[in-house]
Design goal:
This protein has a single domain, classed as MetI-like fold (Orthogonal Bundle). It is 68% helix and 4% strand. It has a two-stranded antiparallel sheet with strand order 1-2. The chain has 10 helices and 4 strands, in the order ββααββαααααααα.
Length: 305
């Protein structure tokens, strides 16, 4: 607490919240250990990231290797070499488990990179709009409203038709269309924070406006951006899978969970494992991210604490 003294009274001013102090690090780990939901989300996300990084080293089979003699084999099938396909094989005899492990790489890359792009743009945009306010704020938020009025799928089809579908294109599409959510939320937080006493005190001691914006206001709204980013990773992974399933996202020979679902949809009656296991991978991963994001909200949001 910082104090401003006068002749008759004392006015206390809350100092900006320090998010990364040493005691908070200890509380952070203890809170994770004592939260079943947060711990479950952390374990799931850690496993998915581990598969994405080391997938080529731990895959039981080559995910792109065809074996037409082993087509449509159910889970637990043992091939001629004595190796077991734990989750079965697809229409080309490729191992489902190996392809799920390989597909985690795309999900992690798209989820993390697209959210980083969207979060960076959205946080800065909302910070500027909320801090300066007035006419500039009105113009900037009308641009956000205009972007929100365009259906997402139409925007994706239009951009893909111009530049072509692919992993890089999909990341850019999700990154440069997802920032509006951050902009709206961060702007609302900035409008509240800029009226607090410590911001007034910063002006009183002569700090410039740009320094107040980045040193006093941004550190106190960044936790909201982190919470939102954690939840948006799951949304982005789900969007990537949906677009790849529809043929608007990543294209073969790249391996994604959405493409695996698209390959297996016509065989659902005879080879249910082709869609069931990739679908479970998407569901579990998104739930893990949601659990972790919900726990982060409980830890970082002072209103919840």
């Amino acid at each position: 607490m910082a104090e401003l003294t006068s002749k008759d009274n004392i006015v206390t001013i809350d100092a900006p919240q320090q998010l990364l102090s040493e005691p908070r690090r200890f509380d952070f780990l203890r809170a994770l250990y004592t939260s079943p939901v947060g711990l479950a989300g952390f374990i799931i996300v850690t496993i998915v990231v581990f598969f994405a990084i080391f997938g080529t080293m731990i895959s039981p089979f080559d995910p792109a290797e065809n074996n037409l003699r082993a087509r449509f084999q159910p889970p637990g099938f043992v091939n001629d070499d004595g190796a077991t396909h734990i989750l079965g094989t697809d229409q080309l005899g490729r191992d489902i488990l190996s392809r799920i492990i390989a597909g985690s790489r795309v999900s992690v890359i798209v989820g993390v990179v697209a959210v980083m792009i969207a979060g960076t743009i959205g946080v800065l945009y909302g910070l500027i709009a909320g801090f300066f306010g007035g006419t500039l704020d009105a113009i900037m938020m009308r641009m956000v409203d205009a972007l929100l009025s365009i259906p997402f799928i139409i925007l994706v089809v239009a951009i893909s038709g111009v530049v072509g579908a692919g992993l890089t294109t999909l990341i850019l599409i999700l990154g440069f269309t997802g920032w509006v959510t951050y902009a709206r939320v961060i702007r609302g937080e900035v409008l509240k924070v800029r009226e607090l006493e410590y911001v007034t005190a910063a002006y009183a001691i002569g700090q410039r406006r740009i320094m107040v914006m980045f040193k006093q206001i941004l550190p106190n709204v960044i936790s909201t951006g982190i919470i939102l980013a954690a939840t948006q990773v799951g949304v982005t992974i789900l969007a990537e899978s949906s677009l790849s399933f529809l043929g608007l996202g990543v294209k073969p020979p790249e391996i994604t969970w959405g493409l695996m679902l698209a390959d297996g949809r016509q065989y659902m009656g005879s080879a249910w494992w082709m869609t069931t296991f990739p679908g479970l991978a998407i569901t579990i991963t998104v739930l893990g991210v949601v659990f972790l994001g919900d726990w982060l909200r409980d830890v970082l949001d002072p209103n919840v604490r």
